[in-house]
């Protein structure tokens, strides 16, 4: 979960930087940061997907354990 939080925080920082760099000459900084942002978004989605998978597995284990009592 901490990895997802860190990735989301970094995405927010990158989005803020993109907003600030909108006025750069020729938009070169925009292109660079947009590419970097897409990489961070992939990491965020991956971290969220892993956490949801782990949560679902734990939920199944808990339900199975409660049925066997």
Protein architecture, described:
By secondary structure, the chain is an all-alpha fold. The chain is built from 2 helices and no strands. It has helices at residues 2-20, 28-68. The chain starts with a helix and ends with a helix.
Total helices: the number is 2
Secondary structure tally: strands: 0
Mean pLDDT: 71
The major pleated sheet works out as: none
| Count of domains | 1
Helix content: over 70%
Alpha carbon gyration radius: 19 Å
What fraction of the residues are assigned to beta strands by DSSP?
under 5%
Q: Residue ranges: pLDDT <50 for 5 or more in a row? A: none
What class, by secondary structure content? mainly alpha
Question: What's the oligomerization state?
Answer: single chain
Q: How many angstroms separate the termini? A: 30 Å
Shape: rod-shaped
Q: Helix and strand string, N-terminal first?
A: HH
State the main characteristics:
mainly alpha, single chain, 69 residues, 0% strand
Task: Draw up the topology in text.
Blueprint: H1 2-20, H2 28-68
Helix pairs in contact: 1-2
The gist of it:
The protein is mostly helical and 69 residues long. Helix content is 87%, strand content 0%.
């Amino acid at each position: 979960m901490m990895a997802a939080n860190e990735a989301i925080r970094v995405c927010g920082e990158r989005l803020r930087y993109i907003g600030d760099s909108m006025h750069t000459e020729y938009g070169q900084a925009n292109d660079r940061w947009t590419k970097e942002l897409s990489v961070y978004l992939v990491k965020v989605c991956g971290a969220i997907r892993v956490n949801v998978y782990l949560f679902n597995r734990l939920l199944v284990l808990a339900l199975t354990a409660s049925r066997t009592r």
